[in-house]
Amino acid sequence: MYRNANNYRPRKKRRRQSRPSLWQMLLTTALMLLLWVLFTRLLDSLPEPAAPDVEGTGVSLGDIDMAAFRKEEPWIDINGGVPGFTQEERTSTEPFETYAELDELGRCGVAYANICRELMPEDEREGIGQVKPSGWQSVKYDIVDGKYLYNRCHLIGFQLAGENANKQNLITGTRYLNIEGMLPFENMVADYVKETDNHVLYRVTPVYQGSDLVAIGVQMEGWSVEDEGDGIAFNVFCYNAQPGIAIDYATGESWENASVGTGQTVQTDPSQTYQLNTKTKKFHLPDCSIAIDEANRGVYTGQRADLIEMGYEPCGRCKP
Amino acid sequence: MTVLVCVEDRLGQSFHGKRLSRDRALCARIAAAASGRALLRMSPYSQPLFPNTPLLASEDYLDQAEPGEWCFVEREDLAAYEEKIERIVLYRWERTYPFDQTFAIPVQGEGWRLVSQEGFAGFSHEKITEEVYERV
Predict the structure, then answer these.
(1) CATH 3.40.430.10 at B2-135, yes or no
(2) How confident is the model at residue A287 (pLDDT cuts 50, 70, 90)?
(3) Residue B123: closest CA among chain A residues belongs to which residue?
């Protein structure tokens, strides 16, 4: 301990402590409230964080408008075509492939791989018909190339990672999505890797609305690692649609609708069969428990809206 | 000038300002064909595809090109140069790729005729088809 010549030990200054008054406490609280309000207002004034943001085409994943789908445009740019990989991911030359577990509705999630020669298949493709992706329906239309509306669409194409009947990599996708939307991007990546021996980060994310069983489309992202995106760089949304065919994405049911693919889709109901009571002008589901007198019973197959237009009302019990 | 252009199945030429595909066997074929026959011009973007090949690379190569010279074209829109073009060599990848720019010269139209067509194997492409068009 320091002592001066007079053997004087300096005393520590003792700060006088006193209890804050009520006014002081109120003032402090008010000040803190004011600071909090100013802080939250400052946060509000900042631009939105990077929800797939809007550059180039002005489209983000959150506002995809399926009614605006045009058959000449199987995909649209997301975030100005810039993929969302992190800087760390963009330098990775480690081969990998990951497929999300199916969710509680049996739907696929994100499929992500670092495509390279090592992952590409050497064997012939095997059958995948045993897989029934969520919303799967086997349905044919004359206006669809190959007749079948739906294909089992690989998220990561067979030519890229050699996955066959992997149920975590197969979704219910239209022929149009498969051939016009996704295949050109798969081809571009596959041929680039074969030519350069480089790696391409490749991520495909099916986009579902609510509890729909069928995706409205897929987001596809690609980035060539060694040349820092000089060879491959894209971020697109591919429509899971089919020109001339309307789809109920909740179930996978479909019906012809000439306006789909024109950019101005007019919603129509699927064609269904109803029982009619021509006397009461009510319509019923075929298995409705209400008995209809033989003399007044009719059968109608067509759209519900047309039936209502004709003056019929839905039965209150079976609620068709 | 002769223009040499690579296209996918629907005449797509480039995507987001990038080439759709590349193949070293195709480049070697072009280099060999031009060697001793014509001056080969291209943009600095294309030059790395042709290592050890005598050529002239510049941003304004289409403006600089003289009659008889060859231009390897990847990203440029040729519509403005149609009058200057004497011959077109199209290399079809025989694949579909995404594109946002198409090859602008209507070779199926009245002003052009197909004079030769030949398929060959590339390095990373099973088959590439070379089509040569001349003015009618």
Answers:
(1) yes
(2) confident
(3) A195
